[in-house]
């Protein structure tokens, strides 16, 4: 037992320090008593006073949330609709990253992905999605990524919405 524990800790540390970790988490069902939610079946809360733009067409709906001054603004993007997303982060983001963490999200009989990464310059990306919908940001500063992550951490699943 004394030998096994250090080996387990070493392997776990190597997996974490390599920047490639996988796990699973259950997305909670939306509780609208805590305030409005934005999105398709996957929803997040957007703070009061946020910079917000809506986008839609005949086959998709979506919005953008901004962070920072207009000249150098970073954007959180979401889209939902039958062809809104492949449900996977762009391969280019993953291959250009020095660190990547991927987690499977589970909700009401379905699953998706929560993936995030860091580029060599320190900028960050994150992708949460399933086939037909996603939330994502790319090339975001550490501060803007933290702002967007606070919103993304409110992720919930609205089983009343049919896509």
How does this structure look, described?
With 163 residues, the chain is an alpha+beta fold. It has one domain. The chain is 18% helix and 43% strand. It is built from three helices and eleven strands. It has helices spanning 4-17, 91-95, 142-152; strands at 22-26, 38-39, 42-44, 51-57, 60-67, 74-80, 97-107, 110-119, 124-130, 133-140, 156-157. The strands form two sheets. Strands 1-7-8-9-10-6-5-4 form an eight-stranded mixed sheet. A hairpin with a 2-residue loop joins strand 7 and strand 8. The radius of gyration is 17 Å and the shape is globular. 31% of the residues are buried. Mean pLDDT is 84; it is low at 4-21.
Largest sheet: 8 strands, mixed
Strand order of the largest sheet: 1-7-8-9-10-6-5-4
Poorly predicted runs of 5 or more residues: 4-21
Instruction: Write down the oligomeric state.
Output: single chain
Radius of gyration: 17 Å
How many distinct folded domains? Answer: 1
Which secondary-structure class do the elements indicate? alpha+beta
- Residue fraction in strands: 35-45%
**How far apart are the first and last residues' alpha carbons, in Å?**
52 Å
Helix content: 10-25%
Tell me the total number of β-strands.
11
Shape: globular
Number of helices: 3
Mean pLDDT: 84
**H/E element order:** HEEEEEEHEEEEHE
